[in-house]
Amino acid sequence: MKASLLLLHIFFAMVWIGGMVFNLLFLHPAMKSIKNDEMKKEVAGKVLRRFFLAVWLSIAVLLLTGLGLWHTYRPDLGTNPLFHIKLFLFSIMVINFIYIYFYLFRKQLFRHIPNFVWINLILGILITSIITYIRFGGS
Ligand code: HEM
């Protein structure tokens, strides 16, 4: 059971972080070659709608599997300050995503979205580094 929870947890961390890497480093630069503004908006809207659905799912799965792992297998993490930092950074990622989705995306302010996705990518990398250091006891 633990292996399945951890697998799901890691898989959806990959979906969210990998999706952000793909969007920022590969898709966004290539989109600049589309000169027609209407077409650019249409493509951006379609790509982001699909990706953001995956992000909502990732948030739900990361939270549920994370809580499951914590309460059943790693109750010791409750007193680990690094784990508290992980949860704090995760909350900022979720709040930032809510802003991206309900304000920038809904109002079609696509130009501003990459800057805020960069913030979440950096936080996601930080979270992954923190949990790795927790596993190896900070060494
Ligand atoms: C973007 C958000 C998150 C990312 C990128 C992430 C990433 C990861 C990764 C890569 C691991 C595997 C570490 C290892 O096996 O060495 C892990 C483990 C873990 N995560 Fe997360 N996580 C996120 C959110 C959360 C949340 C919200 C919770 C709790 C509510 C949580 C609780 C846990 C726990 C308890 C483990 C330890 C499992 C174990 O020791 O076997 N995570 N996380």
Secondary structure topology:
Layout: H1 2-31, H2 37-72, H3 81-105, H4 113-135
Helix pairs in contact: 1-2, 1-4, 3-4
How would you sum up this structure in a few lines?
The protein is mainly alpha-helical. It has four helices and no strands.
Explain this structure.
The chain is mainly α and 139 residues long. It has one domain (2-135). Helix content is 82%, strand content 0%. The chain contains 4 helices and no strands. It has helices spanning 2-31, 37-72, 81-105, 113-135. The longest helix is centred in the middle third of the chain and has 36 residues, at 37-72. It is elongated. Bound molecules: protoporphyrin IX containing FE. Protoporphyrin IX containing FE (HEM) binds at residues 6, 9-10, 13, 62-63, 66-67, 69-70, 73-74, 77, 87, 90, 93, 124, 127-128, 131-132, 135. Protoporphyrin IX containing FE binds at residues 6, 9-10, 13, 62-63, 66-67, 69-70, 73-74, 77, 87, 90, 93, 124, 127-128, 131-132, 135.
